[in-house]
Amino acid sequence: MLKLLWRVAAFAIALGWGGAWAQWDYSTSTDPMTSVVVQYAEIASKNSMSLDFPYKGKNHGHLILRRKGARAPVEVIVKIDKGQIMSCRVESCPVQVRFDDAPPITMTAIGSTDNSSRVIFINNARQFFERARKAKHIKVAVTLFQNGVQVLEFDAPQALIWK
């Protein structure tokens, strides 16, 4: 059933219906080395960023929550389809986040260990997770190389339910 819901949501997002159909997609995988079960909750942005060459075309953001093992802390990942997120690759950088109608707050983020310029990890993951559980609208502002600050907008009409 979850796979069917995910396919419907992915189809809706591809057609640009993200605002009305967007929802959290839940999945699991097993680490082949450690056999640890990894849980995911992911949602795509309702908006597409308009970027300059060579990143032209549809470009969505993804908000991913990940937990490696039942007792591990939750990690919060912000990922973009194309482009380069600046300033977070070597050291922490500020990221503006807004939950529903609350004022924006500044959190910090760091780049991924594989040096991908399309991914950042929010350092204040527990605080982010607690607020995201209750929020229907989440905005994350990221600075992109030669494209300035871009605001990713995530709408989740149904609350985040972490199992």
Helices and strands, with pairings:
Blueprint: H1 2-14, H2 18-21, E1 25-30, E2 37-48, E3 60-68, E4 74-80, E5 93-99, E6 105-111, E7 119-122, H3 125-134, E8 137-144, E9 148-155
Antiparallel strand pairs: 1-2, 2-3, 3-4, 4-7, 5-6, 5-8, 6-7, 8-9
Structure description:
The chain is built from three helices and nine strands. It has helices at 2-14, 18-21, 125-134, and strands at 25-30, 37-48, 60-68, 74-80, 93-99, 105-111, 119-122, 137-144, 148-155. The chain has a nine-stranded antiparallel sheet with strand order 1-2-3-4-7-6-5-8-9, with helices on both faces. β1 (25-30) and β2 (37-48) form a beta hairpin. It starts with a helix and ends in an 8-residue tail after the last strand. It is 17% helix and 42% strand. The chain has 163 residues and is of the alpha+beta class. It is globular.
Short structural summary:
The chain has 3 helices and 9 strands. The chain has 163 residues and is of the alpha+beta class. It has a 9-stranded antiparallel β-sheet with strand order 1-2-3-4-7-6-5-8-9, with helices on both faces.
Strand order of the largest sheet: 1-2-3-4-7-6-5-8-9
Percentage of residues in strands = 35-45%
Instruction: Please give the oligomerization state of what you see.
Output: single chain
Number of helices: 3
Report the end-to-end length measured between terminal Cα atoms. Answer: 16 Å
Show unreliable segments.
1-21
The SSE string, one letter per element, is HHEEEEEEEHEE
Globally, the shape reads globular
- Sheet bearing the most strands, described? 9 strands, antiparallel
Mean pLDDT: 85
User: Rounded to an integer, what's the Rg over CA atoms?
Assistant: 15 Å
Structural class: alpha+beta
Helix content: 10-25%
- Total number of beta strands: 9
